[in-house]
Amino acid sequence: MNFLSLHRKIERHSGLLIFGILVVSSIGGLVQVLPIVLDDSHSAPAAGLAVYSPLELEGRDIYIRESCSTCHTQQVRPLLAEVKRYGPYSRAGEFAYDRPFLWGSKRTGPDLARVGGNYSDAWHHVHLLDPRAVVPASIMPAYPWLAQRDADQGRTIAARMRTLRMLGHPYSDADIAAAPAALEGETELDAVTAYLQSLGRSMQGTPQP
Amino acid sequence: MNYEDRIVTAFTACSVFWAVLGMLAGVYVAAELVWPTIDFGLPGLSFGRLRTLHTTLVLFGFGVSGLVATGLYSVQRTSHVRLFAPGLAWFVLYAWQLTIVLGGASILAGWNAGKEYAELEWPFDLAIAVAWVSFGVVFFGTIARRKMEAIYISNWFYGALIIVVAMLHIVNSLALPATFGKSYSLFAGAQDAVVQWWYGHNAVGFLLTGGFLGMLYYFLPKQAEQPIWSYRLSIVAFWAFVYTYIWAGPHHLHYHSIPEWVQSLGMAMSLILLAPSWATMVNGIMTVSAAAKKLRSDPALKFIVLSLAFYGLATFEGPMLAIKSVNVFSHFTEWTIGHVHSGALGWNALITFGTFYFLVPRLAGAPLYSARLANIHFWLALAGVMLYVLSMWGAGVSQGVLWLSLDKLGEVRFSFNDVMAAMKPYYLLRFIGGLLFLAGAVLMAVNLARTFSGRRTVVVAPPPAHAAKGLT
User: Fold this and answer.
1) Could you tell me the pTM of the whole model?
2) ipTM exceeds 0.85
3) Which of A65, A96, A137, B466 would be a feasible disulfide site paired with B110, CB 3.0-4.6 Å?
4) A42 near B CB under 8 A
């Protein structure tokens, strides 16, 4: 049977066509994506990687809400210039508690994978509320509402931590019970700052390659 | 039973509406990069949220509505039967448009799943899955009842769009809900990244490439009044496309914390992808070259031919950017944005515009309100996309080279802030390009609305059963 007569069958039978498309389009995913998904060593936590505290988690979820990863990557590539500019290159183990991952695809602003500890909390507060007050050429939006809103307004932090625990993040019952109180009196600005200060923490002290 | 074309009119109208609104959001975020304070401190106008709204509206509002409209139109005519389960088709219309309206509002309100081009939260993901599968039932149901012996090639592409996007959407959206508006991905870190770009790249592949190739394979021969140049080439290109595209996702993760072999495989497959992509382009160009005379007088055909040129450009640029040593410069820069828009504006939007200029007069049973306006639209669109793409090339290449530039001592030569500040003229040019493109889309909306105003969708019957088995 030559190739055209085989195809004559497929194109005259809608079931065969559907089946053919399913099979042919699945091969790549099965060979290339599935092995990564099944091999949990790709998201095994790096030594020294701590799970996000309630305040950091709240900050991370606000970072996602505002789509910060549209303009800020969290991925230092193993290139000399990038390591010089930002710090040690990123390792898979650093992102074990990142759901979803926030590597981003565009660097309109600088990479943030190693930003933790580089600036004071006070600097971040000013910068988030009025970026041009500290970086005159900045084109980052100002986020004045972060200072006006209490952290965890929806009172969902415990529910979120329980969900993450189901996915394997090591939160204890005590961690979850204490979380609402830990966010008491904090603003969203504090939460985002705490998250930013946590970035790259597990790699601090790692010698540069 | 007559063809069910009112649904085609409805989806076309929605598509045009979302095109204007989605591009308006795009132009606004482009302006925010030049004048960062024009969000006036309002969360809903903030860059991050508005840019997410922009991509959601143009992809799922404009793009998908246009694909469903043209898919439902062409599947009836290539099958010689009325749509299967028209009631379900109307359900798809309302479910899909409601999802875009409420989903768009949810993004402005801060609901965000955090995955690029899949930001809608889990309730919307479920709604999308239901509507999409219903679309599949209507589409394949129509094919199953066809009076024609062979399934025409445009339907293979629309079929691949439906099947593969369903697979990608369902897997990539797997998440555990914490609250009604917040869920966490089932995958973490590097694993999540690999799944996301398998989705992200193939949403481009099967929606923006495959789906629109379906549009091309039906509407180009109709407009050119020529059969497809090579049927055999279309078979080879189709299966090579379906097989190869799915492997190419990891080129979005070059030099990232994922295994080296995945990156290399993604790069190799991205290069191979050039062959089926260009095979289809050659097939299209050879088809239209037989109707070169018509090209001078028919604005709709001009749009489609220009879209083929941009298709060729974008599908050449893509594999080049997937080469690791090129990607090292282009990655994370405006070049990526330029590449996406040479595809999305130059290919997807232009072929859709051309198809609508062909389709709406037929649905209305009246000539286009103004061919002159359509010609002005053509030049606005061409100027807009060129300005957009050229400015982003300039910006992207500058960023790529300056960021990685080292001095004699091996230290970085340019501060990030200096490079960022140098982007301003490029951002201004891009804003102007986007504005021109949007202006053209508004002209089209007016033109099509005037063409249709006061009319109803023309009732068309399938050809009688004994007609020749040629394509309709």
Assistant:
1) 0.96
2) yes
3) A65
4) yes
